[in-house]
Specification:
By secondary structure, this protein is mostly helical. The protein has two domains: 55 residues; 193 residues, no CATH class. Helix content is 75%, strand content 0%. It has ten helices and no strands. Helix 4 packs parallel to helix 6, helix 6 crosses helix 10 and helix 9 packs antiparallel against helix 10.
């Protein structure tokens, strides 16, 4: 694809702009900003990746992975500002997920330790972990706010903080994981995943493309479960003081 054909594809941006203007949706500015940012960011990443691939240096590979973790943390932490130390909890979660998945992939020889494999797979894993983290934090803070009286009742009856938040944790973890599971149920029937479609367009064997896509699906399922569970068990203790009392100011939502 050339820059000229990319310019032609801007018609797919023009259509929503026209519809937004016609229907008075007020989305024109955001659409234009999103389009410009996506062009600049992706082109910049493309040139950076080209440099990293050509250099074949493991230092640049892990610098790219570190940059992904920093960016994901900055985005996800906005949804958990009431949780003490949420930044480092997110960093620890993302690092754990990345180390676990890459250790299995590289350690078992599933994928080679090269930039062409490590960086794209890490991007999908960390990106999915970020989305799951946001979903979990949104639901968990809402559940804690809604079940405040129930939590305090359990504590007053001698229950531990873990027992008091067990239901909220379970509900939040389930709610954040369900979208991943449901999307996998219809994969290949309702949609062809991006990685698989990209490989097929590039001329790869469709069966090989499917095998790689299955690998990613399995990784994302693991990412979903680990991210939600680990973030949940790292977060809930900060909602209580040393006397096992609920800190109500920590669970107030924006609503």
């Amino acid at each position: 694809m050339s820059y000229l054909t990319l310019a032609f594809s801007l018609i797919f941006v023009l259509i929503p702009l026209i519809l937004s203007k016609t229907l008075n949706l007020g989305l024109e500015k955001d659409t234009i900003i999103a389009t410009i940012r996506s062009i600049i960011q992706l082109l910049a990443v493309g040139y950076i990746l080209q440099f990293v691939f050509d250099s074949e240096s493991s230092i640049y590979i892990w610098l790219m992975v570190g940059l992904m973790i920093v960016a994901a943390t900055q985005n996800a932490r906005k949804k958990g500002t009431s949780i003490q130390g949420i930044t480092w909890k997110l960093v620890g979660t993302f690092i754990f997920v990345e180390v676990l998945t890459q250790s299995v992939l590289i350690g078992l020889g599933i994928t080679p330790p090269t930039a062409q494999y490590v960086i794209p797979i890490s991007g999908m894993v960390i990106g999915n972990s970020m989305v799951l983290g946001i979903l979990f934090l949104n639901r968990f803070t809402a559940e804690m706010d809604d079940k405040r009286n129930e939590t305090e009742l359990i504590l007053s009856l001698g229950g531990t903080p873990k027992q008091a938040v067990q239901r909220q944790l379970k509900t939040s973890i389930q709610a954040s994981i369900i979208p991943t599971i449901e999307s996998q149920k219809t994969i290949g029937l309702v949609q062809l995943p991006g990685m698989m479609s990209g490989q097929i367009i590039a001329g790869a064997d469709p069966v090989q493309a499917v095998l790689f896509q299955l690998l990613i699906l399995f990784l994302l399922l693991t990412t979903a479960v680990i991210t939600s569970a680990l973030l949940g068990f790292l977060s809930y203790p900060t909602l209580f003081n040393e006397r096992m009392q609920l800190l109500e100011e920590k669970i107030k939502t924006d609503s």
